[in-house]
What does this fold into?
Amino acid sequence: MVIKHQLKGYEAFTQFVDNLKENKGNVYILFSGSKSEDGQSWCPDCVRAKPVVEDALKYTDENSQFVYVEVGDRSFWKDSKCPFRTDKRTKLLVIPTLVRWGHPQKLEGEQCENPDLVEMLFQEE
It folds into this structure.
């Protein structure tokens, strides 16, 4: 079964990836706008992508980890100095972004809403 993690903010994200241990499975990270009081992300694309990505988790290896990262509120994300944009490990241009950590596979924006593309990312070796 996929191990799921939910992280809020850049510090939690960096601490998580800095402490990643070698494991047999892949690590997939979905970067999304932070949730507001109603429990939904302020980012409408992220809201549409999340159920598609979560449904496709069934195609991942059972040793995989899935990490949902809230990048912050709209103003924090839109700042060109946002650390998620400037960190050499992430270099995010848009949210949502789904990556296979440590590999070139990446889906951005509306691609994360496409079940076929998400399934392919989860099945690629």
